Amino acid sequence: MIQESQLQPEQAVFRETVVAGDYFMKSVKAGQTFRILDLEGNQAADTLFYNANDPTERYSAVDTIREQGNVYLTAGTRLMSNEANVMLEIVADTCGRHDTLGGACATESNTVRYALEKKCMHACRDSWMLAVAENEQFGMSKRDITHNINFFMNVPVTAEGGLSFADGISAAGKYVELKAFMDTIVLISNCPQLNNPCNGYNPTPIEVLIWD
Amino acid sequence: MSKNKILYEEQLNGACHWSLHMRKGTSLRLTDIEGGANVGMLFYNPVNLLERYNAPDTLKCQHTFKLQKGHCLYSDMGRIFCSIIDDSVGWHETVCGNTSAEMVKQKWGEHSYQDYRNEWYQNGYNSFLVELAKYGLGKKDMAANLNLFSKVGVDEKGDLKYEADNSRAGDYIELRFEMDTLVLMHTCPHPLNPAGDYPRKPVAYQICQAEAVQEDDYCKNFRPENQRGFANNDIFHLGLGGRS
Asked: Whole-model pTM?
């Protein structure tokens, strides 16, 4: 569902551009709203969420899918934790559909999907490994890296049980906006994948904006 | 059903949980005794418990939402824990998670151990927590699980639809292990099961000696990705001293 935001970028309390292949890791407070903006189009933002006060509580793809009875995420979707609490709600979305089935790219899964020789190409999970290593204050490790959301990605499921990776339905200037229901650590990998159309074979920057 | 030699057989009653260590080259055959069973399942690598079953990689590597004969079940490290070498069901799901204590209470009421002893209403989430803790693991380690024998379809809008009659009495699935694997499983109801009474469905399981994987193996050749997955397993076993 397309839902535009009334928030003005000039009034944001925080703005940061995240280049492709880099990560973003920051706490947002309960009640704050943040936006992920696809600056140049067709970019995938692989995202995980944690309760900032107890990171063992985290975004759960399976609980979110099951509780809303639908596999796609869009405006109105409540993102559920593994403890069955609402962590965030998607309050604006100019893209219309986001994926949470496909997971993130990793060097190891790239060997399976594309070729064994691709194993040293940069991948989202490497960005997350660096993020948890460089941010010891959060006390996180590989155990905390779970099944993520792929904002701006389109992964349709067919009635026969197939899964495809369709061309992105995002474009330059499209965004998704979320309101936090608890103090939340946002961990984004701005996807560096070069082997499939999720980034249009051209990974580009995103911007993160936060409003009080 | 495969002709693999049965080494051990046992039954898991409904609403139970257990864990076991499967060796490479053995298979685990599960049979739905009454129809309508659900088996929640997770896999871990015993030599590195950080390596675990990864549902998204399993689905996207094979471009599938459902799991059936031919599919391989992948770890997050690009390796194959096991292959579905036989399957009379045709659709097993891996995106709906587990029942929780609160969900069971809301759907079916409260049946505590105090009042009902081992006929209590166990839930999938606590079942996995108990089995995980036996290996020093906890809720951080609980990945998206398999729900064997259960089908949840998706329509063009993305809405989920639970299919109540997916698995019949006598239906089975056989998993051939391609590396040593710690298997956690429970027989608690599927979280979308709309049954009026708490479903308590038993499952028989057999551990078999699997035939060696040949070059023309059905699962290995089911998708080109699976050939590369098997290659990754070969490299891993070289690292373990060439034990095959």
From this structure: 0.97
